[in-house]
Amino acid sequence: MYLLPLILPLNAFIVCALFSRYFGREVASLLNVSLIFLLFLSSLFIFYEVGLAQTVVNIKLLDWLVMSSFTTRFGLLYDSLTALMLVVVSGISFLVHLYSLGYMKHDPFIPRFLSYLSLFTFFMLILITSDNFVQMFFGWEGVGLCSYLLISFWFTRIAANKAALKAMIVNRISDVFFIYGILLILIYFKTSEYLIVFLFVETIPLENLSFLGLEMRFIDLICFFLMIGGIGKSAQLGLHTWLPDAMEGPTPVSSLLHAATMVTAGVFLILRCSFLFELSSFNLFLIMILGGLTSLFAAIVGFFQYDLKKVIAYSTCSQLGYMFFSCGLSNYHIAIFHLFNHAFFKALLFLSAGSVIHALVDEQDMRRMGNLVNFLPFTYFCVVIGSLAIMGFPFLTGFYSKDLLLELTFVRFIIDSNFIYFLGITAAFFTAIYSVKLLLFVFFNQVNSSRVFNFAYESYLEMAIPMFILALFSVFVGFIFSDLIMGWGTFFWNNAIRSSLANYVYIDSHFVHPLVKNLPFILSLFGFLAGVVIVESFLLFKSSHRLMGAYFFHSNLKKNNSAFPLILRSVSSFFFPALHFNSFYNKLFDILYTKSYSISNKTVDKGFFEFFGPFGFYKGFRTLSLIVKTYPPSVIFFNIGFMFLAITFFLTYLFFSMYLPLFLVFYKGLIGFAVFALIFSQN
Predict the structure, then answer these.
(1) Cβ(283)–Cβ(274) under 8 Å?
(2) Residue from 495, 522, 205 nearest 393 by CA
């Protein structure tokens, strides 16, 4: 049973990748989805036995890497953290596979698409079920590879190819640091297995490391490298630029990537290594600050976007920021619960967005949509449920984790946590604004495109069923699992995660002022009203055939002398391109590439190595031959003869100087032996 989470998705990949030409695309697709459904059923059994029955399972399968005294085994570790993540990954993966049957129905390469999805799921399950860091890195790189394959699935689109390369390259930066962290663990602990590392992390003296005159603890350096690895995968501020561009792939890819795989891998790494991070207050502080800044930054930038999928993508960045600063405050169980809840309503939002895009024949610009509430009522219902859940509306899934997360941030009563609390509630305010903007532009705006009337239709049944299931989960799953995962004295977590008693403030959250408890909801209401006012002002300021953005920022800017359009244009030009991170990186790497090219290529390759290498010798002898060629033949023959005599004389001199003494000694000995023999014969 415990091997099925790896066997089933791998077989699903093989069925579609190798045998679809024999079975046919329909049969292969159904077999693929059936295997993923069996995966979900097996994950429910494992969740019951491991999470509820408290049975930790550690299976050693085979020796993987054997080098002298170091051995890495391919093993599986099932604890409460793994069991919960297994339900999320397998459940969302099954719904996305089922949704893809309708969304990609007319694509001739749907077997290849489903095979990539199954392989994506397989590598994510390798990552979460591994019992050592080396095996985790294998799954870590696997999900990166599959994200590249899926984002560039429509490989005839240049934008998709560029987005896939960008995702791969940006994640390679963080992966290098993750490798450094694993190497330091191998050096310090002489093993990569979780249980051994976490068991001895407090018993082994924490040594200091001297580097460039700086003293740092070994554990701080390990956690820093692991943190950078998690930042890249979870798209935190600085390494977030790949995530919005990844929307170039098909919408089911975006749903799986944002809800259950890839971006959750970084948070999972922090949760899995909580035993290490609890000993490094410096890295916890960095995680807290970075997560808080990411949550606010992504929420503000999301409001200024008009691409439907990019709005939801920046929403993912913002929610991942919540999870990160919750981990930085040592509230790991709240972070994993928010990840659990977020998976359902974020998958619902993306699948609903896919329904809209599918109905409008691949149109993603919200300004060209409108009045879809009359054409797509079921999709509208799902988007409303997902938007309210992500806003933290009372008694929906997001309310049970998001509000408690902010309360626990407030009750730490330190300057750092108060600052993060301010960032968190401000991000909640902007979350409500962009959620309302999405609803109004897509479903209530005046129609700005003929596609709405010509092509809009409700989803296929294969698409509607997963959306309906996710809508139910987005309403009820937070209430059902809140006491099990976050309740007082819950037995669920056992020893899967670790939070020191000094950082345990869960009880204090129940005694905060009612205003603090209700402040996120109040700000969400204000954000809802502000979003309605802003969007309606946007729509009413100019007639329906001409967007207010064009009126403000382009056509009427020179005619309008007031400062209001200039302010709007400057604010929009700053936040719409996401604070110009892409432009900064492009210029930075352009400068670095130009300088490095001039140094490495011109100075080193075409300079030193060519001058002293084979080309240099060739050029030198060629120059010498050209010089010799100018002399008359008689001079050349005389010089060659003179050189031959000189070399002969020199070699003769060396021979006699080296071997003549030995010859004289031998000759004298020979004469003496002859004289002695002659005298002996006379006698």
Answers:
(1) no
(2) 522
C-alpha to C-alpha distance for 230 and 564, rounded to whole angstroms: 41
Residue 52's nearest CA partner among 414, 642, 481, 605 is 481
CA–CA distances in Å: residue 139 to residues 164, 266, 322: 18, 12, 25
* DSSP structure string for 449-515: -THHHHH--PPPHHHHHHHHHHHHHHHHHHHHHHHHHHSTT-SSSTTSS---GGG--TGGGGGS-HH
Residues 443-486: tens digit of each pLDDT? 887 777 666 666 667 778 888 999 999 999 999 999 999 888 88
For residue 9, which phi and psi values (nearest 5 degrees)?
-65, -30
Cα–Cα distance for residue pair 633/680, rounded to 1 Å: 66
Q: Classify the C-alpha dihedral 284-286-292-297 as positive or negative.
A: negative
Cα atoms in the 13 Å half-sphere on the side-chain side of 166: 22
Residue corresponding to tokens 């330190």: 414
Q: Which residue has the higher pLDDT, 236 or 652?
A: 236
For the stretch 29-42, pLDDT in tens is 899 999 999 999 99
Residue 258: name the closest of 178, 219, 315, 326 by CA. 315
Please give the Cα distance from 28 to 41 (Å, whole number): 20
Give residue 548's pLDDT.
Answer: 42
Q: What's the token pair of residue 269?
A: 């790494």
What b/e string do you get for 649-666 counting C-beta neighbours within 10 Å, with b at 16 or more? eeeeeeeeeeeeeeeeee
CB 96 within 8 A of CB 252: yes
Task: Give pLDDT, residue 272.
Answer: 92
How far is Cα 442 from Cα 400, in angstroms, rounded to an integer? 28
Which token pair is 87? 């339900």
The Cα–Cα gap between 270 and 209 comes to 23
Q: Distance between CA 409 and CA 336 in Å, rounded? A: 15
Cα 220 to the center of its chain, rounded Å: 22
Grouping H, G, I as helix, E, B as strand and the rest as coil, residue 216 is: strand
356, 435 contact by CB (below 8 A): no
Task: Quote the CA–CA distance of 258 and 420 in Å, as a whole number.
Answer: 24
Q: What is the 3-state secondary structure (H, E, C) of 74-107?
A: EEEEECHHHHHHHHHHHHHHHHHHHHHHHHCCCC
Q: Which two tokens stand for residue 115?
A: 């095979």
- Identity of residue 259: A
